[in-house]
């Protein structure tokens, strides 16, 4: 009887400790992007790294990406989120998708990797330049996505209006590549790290082409919007695309609601950049503390700022 009593007490003690441990972890939500892009799988790995190296428990969730993610952070519906540096700047300035509704309660943690603007079509579409998109059915990204803003600005530099000079389709990456494969659309703007899963899937079944952007147009785009940078898609990144493609990129970054404490954000920032070598996703090798400040034109959260100052990256 005494042994049973001691055993029962031991079981209860173990359960109590387990419950206490679970109860001690603050639950956070990280918004990523569509399942066919880079944000979603990379976000899952970052959430795991943070959860393993801090007292926080982070869950990564699919979303419509950049602009919607910032709106959800601002409204308190999420804690952390992937976004593009250009969209973050637009949110703070209250321009483009944030016209008249500037955001002042979302801050930066740091940059992650370049996001390449890929204009995808079929090899036999006859579309070989951005100007050839005129009159065509073109996916310009999911509503609320940074891809939409990229498409709008790139088309504008080429003298095309996104609403009147093409037939715009608001599709996710997976919907875009499915649409190209099925012949329902002619081309798609996809802003994501390369190689992008949905584009790889399309290239495996369909002969594809990536439309280049001419250097003079790149120069004009960067002059108007300095958060762009020239970029190239290496030859053979996708099956059947044997030439290097010249295009532009923005940077993926991690943003945070200002409701998180300085200590929490410090631990999150430290966990990510001190353990970036544990990321197995292709983009993991581009996530480094030395490039974490690149392209950030908004305020850092004080917790992130503390980490970068300790690392000698900020004064």
TrEMBL record:
Signal peptide boundaries: 1-20
Coiled coil, from the record: none
InterPro entries the UniProt entry points to: TRAP_TAXI
Pfam family, one: NMT1_3
Record key words, sorted: Signal
SUPFAM superfamilies assigned to the protein according to its UniProt record, in alphabetical order: Periplasmic binding protein-like II (SSF53850)
Keyword Signal: yes
Family matches, as Gene3D superfamilies: Periplasmic binding protein-like II (3.40.190.10)
Protein name: TAXI family TRAP transporter solute-binding subunit
Protein's organism: Ornithinibacillus hominis
């Amino acid at each position: 009887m005494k042994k049973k009593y001691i055993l029962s007490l031991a079981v209860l003690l173990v359960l109590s400790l387990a419950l206490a441990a679970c109860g001690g972890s603050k639950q956070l939500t990280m918004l990523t992007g569509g399942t066919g892009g880079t944000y979603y799988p990379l976000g899952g790995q970052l959430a795991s790294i943070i959860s393993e190296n801090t007292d926080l428990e982070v869950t990564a969730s699919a979303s419509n990406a950049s602009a919607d993610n910032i709106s959800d952070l601002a409204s308190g519906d999420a804690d952390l989120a992937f976004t593009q540096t250009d969209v973050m700047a637009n949110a703070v300035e209250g321009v483009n998708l944030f016209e008249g509704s500037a955001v002042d309660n979302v801050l930066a943690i740091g940059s992650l990797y370049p996001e390449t603007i890929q204009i995808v079509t079929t090899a036999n579409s006859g579309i070989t330049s951005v100007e050839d998109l005129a009159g065509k059915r073109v996916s310009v990204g999911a509503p609320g996505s940074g891809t939409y803003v990229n498409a709008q600005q790139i088309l504008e530099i080429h003298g095309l209006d996104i609403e009147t000079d093409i037939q715009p389709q608001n599709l996710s990456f997976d919907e875009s590549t499915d649409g190209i494969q099925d012949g329902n659309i002619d081309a798609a703007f996809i802003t994501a790290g390369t190689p992008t899963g949905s584009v790889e899937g399309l290239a495996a079944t369909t002969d594809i082409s990536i439309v280049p952007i001419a250097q003079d147009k790149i120069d004009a785009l960067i002059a108007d919007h300095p958060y762009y940078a020239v970029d190239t898609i290496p030859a053979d990144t996708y099956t059947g695309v044997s030439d290097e493609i010249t295009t532009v990129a923005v940077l993926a970054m991690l943003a945070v609601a200002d409701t998180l404490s300085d200590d929490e954000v410090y631990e999150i920032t430290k966990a990510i950049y001190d353990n970036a070598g544990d990321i197995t996703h292709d983009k993991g090798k581009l996530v480094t503390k030395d490039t974490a400040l690149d392209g950030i034109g908004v305020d850092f959260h004080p917790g992130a700022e503390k980490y970068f100052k300790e690392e000698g990256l900020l004064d």
